[in-house]
UniProtKB/TrEMBL annotation:
Pfam (any one): Peptidase_M28
Any GO BP: proteolysis
Record-level Gene Ontology MF annotations: metalloexopeptidase activity
Domain of life: Bacteria
All residue ranges annotated as the Peptidase M28 domain in the record: 293-504
Descriptive protein name: Peptidase M28 domain-containing protein
Amino acid sequence: MNAQFISSVTKPDSSAMLEVDENDPAFKAAMTITKEDLTKHLTILASDEFQGRETGYPGNDLASAYIAGEIKRIGIEPITGDSYFQKVDFKWISWDDISITVGENRYKHLWDFLSFPDKNVDLGEVDLDEVIFLGYGIDDPKYTDYKRAKIEGKVIMINEGEPMDEDGKYIISGDTQETEWSQYPEKKLELAHKMGAKAVLIITKDIQKMLGENRRKLLGPTVVIGQSEDEEAPVANSIYISSNIAKDIIGSKSKKMIKARKKMAKGKSKSLKLKTDMKLIQKRKDYSLAGNNILAYMEGTDKKDELLVVSAHYDHVGMKGDDVYNGADDNGSGSTTVLELAEAFQKAKMAGNGPRRSILFLWVTGEEKGLLGSEYYATYPVFPLENTIADINIDMVGRVDEKYKDNPNYIYVIGSDRISTDLHDANEEVNRNYSQITLDYTYNSEDDPNRFYFRSDHYNFAKNGIPSIFFFNGVHEDYHKITDTVDKINFDKMTNVARHIFYLAWKLSNQEADLKITNGKA
């Protein structure tokens, strides 16, 4: 049974007067987080000088140098040596040349077909006089296309999905429920690779939708965490093709294809050798770049072997031509907030009130490329993940969305109860006792169509069973546009949110009780 995650709103009690002891060390430290400091840092990080902070580019290096310089100024020492950086190697992958030609007809990538460069190896130019049609490319006890198929070194063509009978029921499941052969297309590609296929052409019914969803992304390079040059792909090369390309390849065998499809509807597969005059070009262009995660470590006292992570990504989407995408809210606001939190904790420590648990302030790169910096840290953690009690992630906290235009004293909270309800309760408690802002859990709903829970860096901690909470101001019209600039930041709201997050980090790093895991992995 799926857990039912909180998706309501907690509003502050307007009738209650909040009384805070001004000698409370948490309160005193939180008050060192100021609007003026947040404004100063964000104005620098989101300036044109930093060129949109794109991973692998000079502007990102400038941003990492600035953040590291501020950590040093604050007085937090590097973990080892004299560097605050965890180097992250990236590989940028794109198509240098890609096309399909059948006879006299040349088909264009991103218009007639689609192939993801990071999911394919470099095939170069391949001249084909034969393509093997192999049904759905399935090998299952209840249905197989591989019974007598010999495909080693061949290019095969398959249908997407899985066969259905004349009553609309799937052959394999026996009902209207798809199986993993439809849900996980890579299963077919793994099988084809195992059987020696050179490449797989996948006939895709709604190819235009797929092209529309991926065209913009694939116009530029795909970025992955660095891999060795000679690493073998675990799946066969894959090309998603239109029905027009398929018809061109089938040619005069259309009647035999109709008969084959009728057999498949009865659970019997029929492969066909299709004679063709086809050229497939898949030439990849790879190059390596490096980026840095930035780490500021504060050792705790009696519980120093336990670690709290406070994270934000500092990269953005860079430049297009002469236009700078400054990324003030996304995520200059989160990066700046973590800087202020680190300084507040350092001031408290210098006053004799250091945290009981250790804290890692973590600025990650590569978020805009697919959460890559946090994935790298979770794969190669500097501190054992089993000792990491929670991740507090801050991504876009400087703006006010349409819902709260008349009440900017709010924040959306995502993920707080998904692994540990204790984390959710701690966040609510510090809000009652200190912050008194509106905590909105709308985007925490399990059926949230935006799926924000899976779209920021906390998720790479949550995947590993680490309680995680994500603070977010909601969407606005300037997201990933050149208009996401500092002048649109609400610094009063940002200050209140930063102080709230500080109170939560203070509680988690100092409380006696450990967070209990209540819902298992994300």
